[in-house]
Amino acid sequence: MVAPASSNSVIVAGAGIVGLAAAYELGRRGHRVTVLDKEASEAVHQTGNNSGVIHSGLYYAPGSLKATLGTAGAASMKAFAQAHGVDVEITGKLVVATTESQLPALKELLRRGMENGVPCRLIGPGGARGYEPYVQCVAALRVESTGIVDYRGICAVLVRLIREGGGEIHFHSEITAVRSDSRGVTVETVSGTHRADGFVNCAGLHSDRVARLAGLRPEVRIIPFRGEYYELAPELAHLVNGLIYPVPDPAFPFLGVHLTKMTTGAVHAGPNAVFAFAREGYSWLNVNPRDLMDSAAWPGLWKLGAKFWRVGVGEAARSLSRKRFLSGLRQLVPSLPDDCLVPAHAGVRAQAMRRNGALVDDFLYERAPRQIHVLNSPSPAATAGLEIGRLIADELERESDK
Which domains does the chain show, CATH number per domain? Predict the structure, then answer.
């Protein structure tokens, strides 16, 4: 059965936080929205398996979309959660330099943060221990606006608001074809066919494939990286008051293993970053031949591997050895005892990669007539979800006005 198109109807692919936020914003603006997702519920993949952190906008190049949307998102996500009764807490965080050699990178983070309008300041070891008594460092950056939130709860609220606004959400609706003509867009799924005036692709781990179904030739390919988490044993949760992060490697777009006290009081540890053998590869045992061939056929993966093979080996070793994982955490909190880690969930990051091996570091989207395709929405996409939703709505309306 084909759903008829209205004069301002939009189909959104993906029921993660970015897709739902876009649908919510479009509905608020009077568009009739239909969300399609292949899973049985919302927030199954990246959104539902991230660290739960509301990022401050500290890390990102001034003027980038990450910086502007992430900084604004830190405020809007907190406000949205509070308005709708979703668990949220602004804990603040420490980014700690554990060696003198890390101080230049820490000071660069301070510069970026101040330029981005992030409330942050440099403190010494004594000041750091005033916030986190068990931390070890030579200096730290204190960031006040970082927090934690229940992103699954945020998505559940968005689902409710979309439906209350007259929108539709169809699960078990994997997209098989996308066709545009002068009158609109037709989207075929395994469960039916839908017509609309516009189409927004927020399919995350499969966003490049959906773009190709729509006739685009994206300049990037999604390469999956798994992030694995542990939790501290409950009796050790007192060792962490808020969030403790290392100074990240500026050449690599991952923040390193860190410690995060969640809204439940549990302390998450991680994630690492290892190449996944499937786009939904939540363990070493998850292997999808099509996904693996897709990655292996992309020249950028081999160029990245040649450049960062030592980092890759180290991350893989940390994945396979709890002792190595703990060693990384002990650089932040040396008093963590043996056998303090309990395995927790894993997530998979949809990382857009160019042919030359460059990892796309900012949000990336491509336009087509009546269409917007979000091809890279890495961290802080969850934090900035509501802001990205507004950006997508603006872009789609501009595209429709052409």
Answer: 2-47+152-219+361-401 (3.50.50.60), 90-146+222-354 (3.30.9.10)
